[in-house]
Amino acid sequence: MMAVHAHPDDESSKGAATMAKYVSEGVDVLVATCTGGERGSILNPKLQGDPYIEEHIHEVRAKEMAEARDILGVKQEWLGFVDSGLPEGDPLPPLPEGCFALQDVEEAAGRLVKLIREFRPHVVTTYDENGGYPHPDHIMTHKITMVAFDAAGDPERYPEAGEPWQPQKLYYNQGFNRQRTQALHDALLERGMESPYGEWLERWHTMGRDRTLTTFVPCDEFFEIRDKALIAHATQIDPDGGWFRVPMDIQREVWPTEEYELAKSLVDTSLPEDDLFAGIRNN
Length: 283
Known about the structure:
It contains 10 helices and 7 strands. By secondary structure, it is α/β, with parallel strands linked by helices. Helix 5 crosses helix 6 (about 135-150). The longest helix is centred in the N-terminal third of the chain and has 16 residues, at about 55-70.
């Protein structure tokens, strides 16, 4: 299994419990990280203003990634692109020269094709066409993954990238979905507790249709590992913040799965699924 992500920390906030579950079952799991997160902000208020971190953010985030990787038990490779940053303002400023989001898609996909052919995954996960949220690096990650998934098995494309290998299934991470958020929100209110999801749900109600959830992977036994991996990205996550306000017992009772949208399958499968390898394991 290969999980393609934009930045260090994305692997721990999107599908981490699923990966830890499959690792426990003996599945070989590789995270492909497109950028080093060089232009990421320091989001943990406890670390903001630290001059060393600000000056060495690339190295710090690489160390955080190494710790999270070890917690999850996965392998990890850097594709070597430069973080595009998240442009803000009206009008939006131009993206930095040379950044990941400005690369030629076909050319950039070649690095991922090479990694797919070397690692030979049966399942690939990434983001949908909106990037999960519209960060330029997330959208670019989607674009190169779509190209690479189809090209990796074609001997006429990227012949310099190694022997062809065709993954069998491609999924979009959809862990941040309205159904899950609404269920946890309602469960907290029913217990007389404060919910961190009120504003999220208000925004969702004005955003139109939901994504199609096809695959619900039971992985609640690995939620604590997921959280430990996320906390390892100390510059990005406040351990006292909203990510961790839902008690673990409520999470396990109300929503014990992580969700995916099946984007491509070259094997027969029946929806909904509870396994990313459905249709593959017995073939």
